[in-house]
Amino acid sequence: MRIRKAVIPAAGLGTRFLPATKAVPKEMLPIIDTPTIQYIVKEVVDSGIEEIIFVTSKGKDSILDHFDTYDDLEKKLEREGKTDLVNLLKETSQMAKFVSIRQPQPKGLGHAVLCAKDLIGDEPFVVLLGDDLVDSSIPCTKQMIDVYEKENKSVVALMRVGDEDVPKFGICGGHQDTERVYTLDTMVEKPSLAEAPSNLAIVGRYILKPSIFKYLEQIDLGKGGELQLTDAMARMMKVEGFVGYEFVGDRYDAGDKFGFIQANIAYALKRRDIAPRLRSYLKELVANMK
What we know:
This protein has 290 residues and is α/β, with parallel strands linked by helices. It is built from 11 helices and 13 strands.
């Protein structure tokens, strides 16, 4: 069955970016001039996804507003002859079909995914974290869909991390089938370095069969008193098998202050209107630090 739907959990409080996120969702913080979550949406749309389900919470209405039409603003811009901006706004609102559902309590990523059960139905789907960016020539989601269609198993995106970062991630173990594809036999949520089966970390991209909902309903609350998606995937893995895919691309944690700065610089350096001045500024900055 073709993958048509994506779930983007965006219910977190964004405490790492306070006070900026007191009134603005962290997913709406801009990378240059585009909200972080729009890059996530573009990735799935470019991968063939047709329907996007935002799992939100109180104070997150601006996310759905951003992808809605804004007739008054468009008419104002048209009167001013700013057709490029009009087209940009229309393009944003027409990217996909957008649906929103509330996560009533912050019970973790697994619970956020479970909230989308009725909207997903009986078909495979993609899950992407709303502040986890992957810059790649072939969208990371498309890379994973290709693996799913070949393996017919749920797929999680993997990247190698340093020893110091192992306790920050879900970590996988298994055997390598091809250069980037692994058959997984272990998943541990935020293990100590001594407990970790490898340094292959799960990042914010998942392709899941709908049976994941059954496992989410079976597991108990895990680390942090939350329903951990990794725990449900680990149970699913034992019964149905699971594939890990070491994606091609550069990943930025835009939910982290340093990662957010990295993403802004990296994406700005790809912009013709900004890159030349930014390169000059960075060279000058480095020279003055010597």
